[in-house]
Amino acid sequence: MEPAFIVAAFAGGLGALALRLPPLVGFLAAGFVLNALGYTSTPTLETAADLGVTLLLFTIGLKLDVRSLLRHQVWGAATVHMVLSTVFVALFVGALKFTGLAMAVEAGWPTLLLLGFALSFSSTVFAVKALEARSESGSFYGRLAIGVLIAQDVFAVVFLSASSGHPPSPWAAGLLLLIPAAPLLRLLLDRIGYGEMQVLFGVAAALVAGHALFELVGVKGDLGALVVGLLLGPSANAAPLAKTLLSVKDLLLVGFFLSIGLTALPDAGSLLAGLLLLLVPLKGALFTALFLGLRLRGRTSLLAGMTLSNFSEFGLIVAALAASQGWLSEDWLVALALAVALSFALSAPLNAAGERVYRRVGPWLARHERTGQPEGDRPIHVGGARAVVLGMGRVGRGAYERLVREYAVPTVGVEHDPVTVRRLRLLGYRVVEGDATDPDFWERLNLDPKVWLVVLAMPHQRGNLAALDQLHGDGLRAMIAGVVTREEEIGELRERGADVVFHLYGEAGRALVDDAVDRLDD
User: Which pLDDT score is estimated for 68?
Assistant: First the structure.
């Protein structure tokens, strides 16, 4: 890879962090700068980008509950939005004919509908990266957004297969054999342990059993990586595998955002791309309205809609195919590429400000909520508990077990991941599903005044701080204990009112030495 690509990506990421923007905005800007300096995408960069997207979809599958994809909120919102968005965008671009814009004037209705279809997609890569940056890919609204994105990917695969003139091979039916083969793959993953063999297994599963095998029979390879990830998801080692691949995936995805920036440089099509950006907030508003209509809460609807408020790299693939068939001019392809890149840059800071936006419009959204929310998006009751543990990962489970077994304290755990909730309930834990960073969670949560301890055991500081703010806002008098992984986070929790704060690794070291000294004394 060109050294200039690495230097530019690092500089762009640093600049974005300095401006308190997600690094991906800096990577996009770096791509535009490189483009302006005369650099073009290279086969190495494209390969890195493709591998990053494939591993991203594979890890999504590892962490996704298949049942969440079958909800009517997912398929209903995805289907209705695609139809309405296609028609609305076609009308919007058609109206530009009256401005005298040459590209719009020359576009007929087939072209307009094709453009609407291409711009109806939202970016899987961007949305998942935005959710991961906020540690909310497992939240209810995060899972809802990912489900819609997967439904859109299925629509795109159907379109690409039908339009290319190369339908899937008859051998594609053999892919169904992956279902009975899945238990064997999961058994192998569980037996293989950790380390380099686990990484190699993950890469082989994503790129060979997923991408290459599906491409061989005429089905899009990225979809194959997602399917194989879903099949491996029930494995006990699926979550550790996803965590192991995280750094590799993130590094490769830098190539994806650079390549988007290198796709097009602002030119005569910039005006049109800028006008298309006006559709981004309207796209999010339409998703929000659809989710509200499907009986989801205002916060869930708004944040999921904002996550999907961008254009997609899939739209570029659709447009590229249309251009190769002569259905779309190259000028439109350049304008769409620029619109996709700019939509990422626009959507990133908007997503980062999602909670602030919700605080402003939340009361208005609440008036339009309908009853009958699905589980995970409804009121939570924890009556009788004397201690509450927020976050049921390894630290939270340890705190829960200590409270229940050693001190006999009635305790309830709160966890946002439904898969973890179901697993812990089967093991006898008292756990409720809820997102402790959700302001509505606290409004709907009825904590007994006799609760004397709240443990903040969420894996990221942002969630612990948000929970602290809500706890003090509710006037809770319980003692609040928090766990952090960085020393600089201790002061933040104490300033917000935590009574006891432990540094995870520091306390582990002290406990280790104390146990060793006790044994020597014995």
Answer: 67
Domain boundary, last residue among 366, 388, 412? 366
Q: Tell which of 344, 366, 388 closes a domain.
A: 366
Q: Residue 326 sits in a domain of what CATH number?
A: 1.20.1530.20
- pLDDT surpasses 70 at 171: yes
Among 124, 141, 147, 151, smallest CA distance to 68 is for 147
Kindly tell me the sign of the dihedral angle through the C-alpha atoms of 36, 7, 52, 67. Answer: negative
Angle at 306 between CA 304 and CA 311, to 5 degrees: 110
Q: Which residues contact 220 (CB under 8 A, 6 or more apart)?
A: 156, 157, 160, 161, 214
Closest among 393, 440, 260 to 338, alpha carbons compared: 260
Find out whether 343 and 337 touch, Cβ atoms under 8 Å. no
Residue 301 shares a structural domain with residue 413: no
CB contact at 8 A, 135 and 463: yes
Report the C-alpha gap between 158 and 163 in whole angstroms.
Answer: 9
Instruction: Report how many domains make up the chain.
Output: 2
Q: Burial, 172: exposed, middle or buried (Cβ in 10 Å; 0-12, 13-18, 19+)? A: middle
| Residue whose C-alpha is closest to residue 60's, from 131, 141, 1 | 131
List the alpha helices (DSSP H) in 237-297.
238-263, 270-277, 279-293
Of residues 331 and 83, the one with the higher pLDDT is 83
Q: Which two tokens stand for residue 360?
A: 């402003």
Instruction: Indicate if the pLDDT at residue 303 is higher than 80.
Output: yes
pLDDT per residue as tens digits for the range 330-388 = 677 778 877 887 888 788 888 878 878 888 888 888 888 877 666 666 667 677 788 99
Instruction: Tell me, yes or no, whether 422 and 320 share the same domain.
Output: no
Same domain, 338 and 399: no
- Tens digits of per-residue pLDDT, 128-145? 878 877 767 767 788 888
pLDDT > 90 in the chain, percent? 9
- Domain match, 76 and 168 both: yes
> Same structural domain for residues 304 and 178?
yes
- Which residues contact residue 288 at a Cβ distance below 8 angstroms, ignoring those fewer than 6 apart? 301, 302, 304, 305, 306, 365
List the domain range (segments joined by +) for residue 234: 43-366
In a domain, 372, yes or no: no
Residue by residue, DSSP assigns 332-356 as: HHHHHHHHHHHHHHHHHHHHHTHHH
Give the tens place of pLDDT for each residue, 17-46. Answer: 887 777 877 887 888 888 888 888 888 888
